[in-house]
């Protein structure tokens, strides 16, 4: 035991700051896994670290500011900083890298999804420890590597990049075109996660519906059997894998292509959660065309109706942009009508914000910021009323709840989520103290609960 402690104390220590979305988080997990496999110690603090890695986000202005501040703080406290992530790929107005211009003393800068480049920079500035005994440090998830999420849920990234060119987005210029992971690799990672205790697997990418398009849905192999690199086959196999563990599979960033229709029966039969995160962004066909959105010619209301007919419990989450350049009052009203008819369970909305380098900035009709913000507030008022009404409909039902927090074995209650709530972004289920003395609640376990009321955007439930 003391030998292990001595060795671990001697290992070079790397502070890690992870900012940004779930996709950036999976990049962080890959880097941390590699650092750990090579024997580096990783810590969440800057203090005492031999070097700091900051994984940045560069999506909107606030995220850029937050990332630049985090780099500045790491430089001030530690001095040895490697920058990776979306902001790392962004150019300054004068040419050259924005991060280098703002913080010239950083040791190295890479873009997103660049584990090897980050490792090369680490090796150059903090040589790798040579100790065969600490190579390939085992972790709870085996081949799935280190996870930054609580142990009972994990994100699994099925592809990188995106083939679309939405005019408000610079992700393809940061992360490149769609690159689907081999289906066998995804399923192997998923199995390791379930074996390691994950009870909820969150499938992410930039465009989940497009999985396999880049490889022409080629046949891959898993467990010695051929399997097509396609969303339906992937989701079906994930559902089969999750079954014996009683675990959930939740789908994010699903565009409403016709091919998604065939996933709904898998949801209705309970193989995967009846939950879809569909980033609609708008409803009016002209705005969608100006945004160059994927599936902009689809009749989304009819599609949602068909989805609900196939799977009545379906919960929908989406994100929208209010005040896109040229958006008229009539186009905005169309969006509000769409919201009411589509009955979206959880909606987020950004007031349009000009992202440096996005094509939409050149479009005519940029709206004053006050109007964009005003439309965002009007949108959120509609979305929140809908969400509360949807919650009310659940009162009196019994739901399965995954427990996220339960101090003292939940004797005084806890907090969890039902199938309609993704972690971090949706609501929660507040669990009352169990009535039965023998009943306990544990983080990462499921409990049945009777929904007895609502509290803001959350449900209130009696576990049993
Ligand atoms: S689909 Fe559009 S918004 Fe999403 S990553 Fe691709 S270009 Fe960006």
In short:
With 464 residues, the chain is α/β, with parallel strands linked by helices. The protein is 33% helix and 21% strand.
Protein model, in words:
By secondary structure, the chain is of the alpha/beta class. The relative contact order is 0.08. Residues 1-8 and 132-138 have low confidence and may be disordered. Helix 3 (61-77) links the parallel strand 3 (51-56) and strand 4. Helix content is 33%, strand content 21%. The chain has 13 helices and 20 strands. Strands 2-1-3-4-5 form a five-stranded parallel beta sheet, sandwiched between helices. Strands 16-17-18-20-19 form a five-stranded mixed barrel. Bound molecules: iron/sulfur cluster. The site of iron/sulfur cluster has 10 residues, from helix 6.
